[in-house]
Amino acid sequence: MAEDENRQLMERAVISFLAAKGCAVTTVEIIREMDKMKLNCKDSPIHFLNRLRTKGIIKSTFSREKKSLIWSLCDDVKVR
Amino acid sequence: MNIEKIRNDFPILKRKINGKNLIYFDNTATSQKPIQVINAIKEFYEKYNANIHRGVHTLSQEASEMYEDAHKKVAKFIGSKHIEEIIFVKNATEAVNLFMYSYVDKNLKPGDEILTTAMEHHSNLVPWQFLEKKKGIKLKIADVNDNGTLKIDQFEQMITDKTKLITVTQVSNVTGVINDIKKIRKMKKDAILLVDGAQSVPHMPVDVKEIGCDFLVFSAHKMLGPTGIGALFGKKELLEKMSPFIYGGDMIREVKLHKATFNTLPWKFEAGTPNMAGGVGFAAAIDYLEKIRMKNVRNHEKDLTSYILDKLDDKKLTLFGPKDPEKRGGVISFNIKGSNHHDVASLFNENGIAIRSGYHCAQPLVERLKSKGTCRASFYIYNTKQEVDIFLKELNKIKQLF
Question: What is d(CA B86, CA B207) in angstroms, rounded to the nearest whole number?
């Protein structure tokens, strides 16, 4: 599978996961979910998260309660 | 060393990240480039660009000389007297693969043993796993202690008459642990010794004769040079016996329709149009480092390491690697208890501080250290104690969040 296809799959998976959860999730929860796909090395998911954040698709904030960055879809993102 | 003067040579250090002055502590991944290197590459394209070893015209001859001089500079930098012993490759990973295909695959037989360590970067582990499966060569891996240092007695005990290759990193890219290569050489003089110098050659004096290695690999981009170029040092008598790795133009002496003879060293291993501008940039990086002197580079990083280690003694932190700065390079791996390493690196980034997080392409080592990833700060010649102080201040703030 081409790297680009991998990336698209991972990005779609992140978006679908966040949409299905319907609430903000921690970095560890996302990494655990992405790990199941076994598409890239274990350090990859964080890069996909940051790319999606840069594109304005997802956002993150620090949660003192969960002691983690928590990630969610930006309000204007529509999931097909 | 005049650090302020050095810093002025690095344009990228003037950048602001998230409104803060950039503090670049990800030097283990890649180093920044001084203006002298950037200008050397620019000047090559502006004044000298032509394909080497082919044309009779002035540009081609000048470019050829510059590219050959770059080999000479690299050779001298690591204590080799022969340009023939320096093969330019894409990076250290390609150098290991060249050695694996052209030497190890051809010379080792099923049942022969390769000895390495659990602290290797994937680039000095995965090729041997491949060969183990392909040829039935036994891959033996010496363990590390809980502080990341090599279990040197175990390592020695694993050497047998069948050990044909010992392949070991000189400095760990995760813990900064420095391995005693001279001691390892003495353990088995008749095995081939490959040293991964990706994290040592940029940061300390390395002399191939002094450490006694047969092969040494390293990348230019980690030592102020451009990406896409690195070097394989090999003893001339060994390289001469090795088959080419890639076949095609410039690596040949004569070609008939059904046969070819090959060029002399090092060109036999450099098929096709090489990375000429990269070679010129590599040479400029070496000029820069030689002006500073590698002994001073090492001392500066040791000072910073000592300075930060003194201040990192905290129950909320897990530190990896030995405490003694003499036994480690300028690489500090740590975790804040109860945090995810990527979160911590992201929080540092919000304040303009670039550190690395994760497995650092050494997953077996990180897992052996009972971790799922670490934060890593790593230093180079342009880093200062003031930057370390800012880093520590941010670390204290971040710690309070967990």
Answer: 14
